[in-house]
Each structure stands twice: as structure tokens, then as C-alpha cells.
Design brief:
It contains nine helices and four strands. The protein is α+β, with helices and mostly antiparallel strands and 267 residues long. Helix content is 69%, strand content 10%. It has helices at 2-15, 17-38, 43-59, 62-86, 91-135, 147-164, 180-197, 221-239, 259-265, and strands spanning 168-175, 204-208, 211-217, 246-252. The chain is rod-shaped and about 95 Å long.
Length: 267
């Protein structure tokens, strides 16, 4: 029964997160408007404190936000208490100072909860985006394999290579351009042409920022160089360059300590 309640609670929170955020904002507005309407003691200072806290807490690191809220609440409370006792106010007037402190405290802590909830939502959205990205098989622009799909298919292909005692070569093309826009356009062109150059049934292509990887299965170093030379000719026909805009690196699968070293190194 305990596990059922826990799962239910986890499902309930995301479904009602928008409502919770709206409610927190509404309560903050109510606290601010009530404070503004009543014009309690230290009204101007307290209102300035709330406004300043909105800005400061938004830019503080997450672990410092709650500490800041505690300091503001205790500091403002100490200020009101000290002033009220120094003036020997009666209970009726002292109660106004209590209301002032409660409203400022409510405003600050509601804002802290709101920020925490917004950051949690941001982290969850980023995590969900990464999960969706990891499930994609092809790059949307060039249709080469995504990194995760490349790893999965490469592991399967490596088993076939080992079983048949054949060679597999990883060719890495490292782009030489530093200009980000030029490099992105060049990478898309190379990925697209690489996909047209390789053997669709045997070879794999993927790309990361500034690098293109060709995994050539069941071939020799001479065969790998033939593929790269054919890729160079195809790129020259399309891009019309005099010198290759990339560096080539050939790595034999047997030279790797473990297959996962290769797979983990491609990010």
C-alpha cells in the first residue's frame, strides 16, 4: 500500500505543477498587495526588501537561495523586534510589526518555493529532452546515425567481425575550420556525402561537433583508404576545395583495448 501511495504522489505532482506554480504566484501577489494596502510599519523598507529579493534570488545559485531567504527573514524580524521594544510600543502596535514580518516572510518563502519548482521543472524538461534525443536513430539534417544508435549498431557489427575473423576500421575526419558556422555547414555536407559513399549494408556513419566517424566493416586498410579517397573525390565535386578541410585518422579495431573504449570515446 505504501508503494502505491508513493507512485500516486509522483504521478500527481507533474500533472498539477502548472496549477501549483499559478497558485504560488497568486499567493505572492496577495501578500504583496495586502502589505501595500495596510501600509504597515517599515512599509517602504519591507516593500523594497521584497522587490530586491525578487532580483537577487533569481540570480543566486540554487544552494544559496534558501540561505538568503533565511537571512532576510531573520534579519527583518530582528530589526522589527529591536525597534518595537526600543520604542516601548503597546501590544496593539507590536501586532502590526508581527503582521509586517509575517507578510514579508510569506512573500520570500513563497518565492523560494516557486524558484525551486521552476528549476525542478527545467531539470525534468532537460532530462526528458535528452531521453527523447537518445531514442532518435538518425540526425534530422543529414540522416546519418545518431551517436547512441551508432554505438548500438557498432557493437552488433563488431560481434560479426570477431566471429568471421575480419577487420574493421574506424576513420575519423576532424574538421580544421574554427569558424563555427562554416564548420557546421561543412560537417553537414561531409556527413551527407559520406552516407552516399559508404556501403549501406556494412558501414556506419555518425558525427559529433567537428568530427565525422566512418566505421568500415569487413575490410582492410587498403579498402578503408579506397573509401576515403572516393569520399574525397565526391566532396571535391560538390565543394570544389583545393586542400582537404579535414584531417584523417585510421584506427584498426584490433588496436583498441576494448570495444567500449571506442564507443565511450565518441561523444
Amino acid at each position: 500500500m505504501k508503494s502505491t501511495k508513493t507512485n500516486y504522489a509522483k504521478e500527481w505532482i507533474p500533472m498539477n505543477k502548472t496549477l501549483t506554480i499559478s497558485l504560488l504566484i497568486l499567493l505572492m501577489l496577495v501578500a504583496g498587495l495586502v502589505y501595500l494596502y495596510l501600509e504597515l510599519p517599515f512599509f517602504e523598507f519591507g516593500f523594497a526588501l521584497m522587490g530586491t529579493s525578487l532580483i537577487i534570488m533569481a540570480f543566486l545559485r540554487e544552494r544559496f537561495v534558501f540561505l538568503y531567504a533565511i537571512i532576510i527573514v531573520l534579519g527583518y524580524g530582528a530589526l522589527l523586534t529591536t525597534y518595537a521594544f526600543s520604542q516601548n510600543y503597546q501590544n496593539a502596535i507590536q501586532s502590526l510589526y508581527i503582521y509586517s514580518h509575517l507578510l514579508v516572510t510569506s512573500f520570500v518563502f513563497l518565492y523560494w518555493i516557486l524558484l525551486t519548482l521552476l528549476k525542478q521543472t527545467h531539470y525534468e524538461n532537460e532530462e526528458l529532452r535528452q531521453k527523447v534525443k537518445s531514442l532518435e536513430k538518425y540526425s534530422p539534417n543529414t540522416k546519418v546515425l545518431t551517436i547512441n544508435e551508432f554505438r548500438d549498431q557498432a557493437r552488433y557489427m563488431f560481434r560479426l567481425v570477431e566471429r568471421h575473423k575480419e577487420e574493421a576500421w574506424l576513420v575519423t575526419l576532424t574538421l580544421l575550420y574554427e569558424n563555427i558556422k562554416v564548420r557546421e555547414n561543412l560537417q553537414e555536407s561531409i556527413e551527407r556525402v559520406s552516407l552516399q559513399t559508404i556501403r549501406q549494408e556494412y558501414d556506419l556513419v555518425t558525427g559529433t561537433e567537428g568530427r565525422i566517424y566512418l566505421l568500415l566493416m569487413s575490410t582492410t586498410i587498403d579498402g578503408a583508404k579506397v573509401v576515403v579517397n572516393r569520399l574525397r573525390d565526391n566532396l571535391k565535386a560538390e565543394l570544389n576545395f583545393l586542400e582537404e578541410p579535414y584531417e584523417e585518422d585510421f584506427m584498426l579495431y584490433e588496436e583498441l583495448n576494448l570495444m567500449d573504449d571506442l564507443m565511450g570515446g565518441i561523444k
